[in-house]
């Protein structure tokens, strides 16, 4: 069996694959966080709760209503996005011109209430969600066995992140969004409904979190605490990439996922803090983040 730096190749590749999967979820979540902060000027600490809601929505649609995997994957983010519209209309809209601390405290409170509510209803134990039959099994690549569903997670996450980045950075809609954050009165003068645009932007971003939760359901058990366990790492990703930097969030998320995989291979004891060590180093060297325009 071949080895790389004393580690069997299948073990190293397997950890890298696991790191890419984690990085894919980090990318979907940090992408939404970066857009919300960059476009709406809101620190959305409830993002992990929306990720959890996406997982529970998929589980409920599958187990109770009998929808198949593909239907739940499409419906779960839509349901989470509708809830996001309610949250933005009732609460966040009042805080756009206020200090970031107010939005952070509000969304943190929303996250605690949602997690507490679901923990009271469903308990702390996770709910199983089977891998769809069309994506079960794996492919023998010679040097490793690749589970089809894990490959699907990486592929669909990369496609969605790329399409979102292209929409924001390379289309007229993205130009309107960026202009609306800098000079909403001017954009409004062109006949564009800026408040509606901001509402739909928030709904889309939390829908991304819901999609990530539905995508993660077959890999991890759906539980009330699944969002709180990942949101701290995702915030670290956004800080390293640069608050509001969409491309930076995607690149940093995938890179840190790989870093976690490598750390688990060569020094497992440090795998849980590798991301935060990287964040401290980046803050010391480039406080605005690696990809921030201010940097």
Architecture overview:
There is one protein chain. The chain has 295 residues and is mainly alpha-helical. The protein has a single domain (3-285), classed as ABC transporter involved in vitamin B12 uptake, BtuC. It is built from eleven helices and four strands; from the N terminus they run ββααααββααααααα. A two-stranded antiparallel sheet has the order 1-2. A two-stranded antiparallel ribbon has the order 3-4. Strand 1 and strand 2 (7-8) form a beta hairpin. The longest helix has 32 residues, at 9-40. It is globular and about 65 Å long. 44% of the residues are buried. The mean pLDDT is 88.
Number of strands: 4
The ordered H/E elements are: EEHHHHEEHHHHHHH
Tell me what portion of residues adopts beta-strand conformation: under 5%
- What Rg do the Cα atoms give? 19 Å
Report the helical percentage. 55-70%
Unreliable parts:
none
Task: Write down the CATH class.
Answer: Mainly Alpha
Shape: globular
Sheet of most strands:
2 strands, antiparallel
- How many domains make up the coordinates? 1
Q: How many helical stretches?
A: 11
Spatially, the strands of the biggest sheet line up as 1-2
CATH domain topology:
ABC transporter involved in vitamin B12 uptake, BtuC
Average residue-wise pLDDT: 88
Termini Cα gap? 45 Å
CATH architecture: Orthogonal Bundle
Overall structural class, as computed from helix and strand content, comes to mainly alpha
């Amino acid at each position: 069996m071949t080895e790389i730096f004393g580690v069997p190749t299948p073990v190293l590749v397997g950890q890298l694959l696991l790191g890419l999967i984690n990085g894919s979820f980090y990318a979907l979540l940090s992408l939404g966080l970066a857009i919300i902060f960059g476009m709406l000027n809101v620190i959305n600490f409830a993002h992990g709760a929306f990720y959890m809601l996406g997982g529970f929505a998929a589980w409920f649609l599958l187990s109770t209503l009998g929808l198949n995997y593909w239907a739940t994957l499409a419906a779960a983010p839509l349901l989470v996005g509708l809830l996001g519209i309610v949250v933005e209309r009732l609460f966040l809209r009042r805080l756009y011109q206020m200090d970031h601390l107010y939005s952070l405290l509000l969304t943190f409170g929303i996250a605690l209430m949602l997690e507490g509510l679901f923990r009271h209803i469903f308990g702390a134990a996770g709910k199983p969600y089977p891998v769809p039959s069309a994506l079960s099994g794996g492919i023998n690549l010679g040097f490793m066995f690749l589970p089809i569903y894990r490959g699907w997670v990486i592929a669909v996450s990369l496609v969605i992140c790329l399409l979102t980045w292209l929409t924001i950075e390379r289309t007229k809609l993205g130009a309107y969004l960026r202009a609306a954050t800098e000079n909403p009165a001017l954009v409004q003068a062109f006949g564009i409904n800026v408040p509606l645009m901001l509402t739909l932007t928030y709904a889309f971003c939390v829908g991304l979190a819901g999609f990530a939760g539905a995508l993660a359901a077959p890999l991890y058990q759906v539980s009330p605490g699944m969002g709180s366990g990942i949101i701290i790492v995702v915030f670290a990703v956004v800080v390293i990439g640069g608050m509001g930097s969409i491309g930076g969030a995607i690149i940093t998320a995938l890179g840190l996922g790989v870093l976690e995989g490598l750390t688990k291979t060569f020094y497992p004891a440090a795998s849980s803090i590798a991301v935060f060590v990287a964040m401290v180093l980046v803050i010391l060297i480039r406080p605005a983040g690696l990809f921030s325009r201010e940097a």
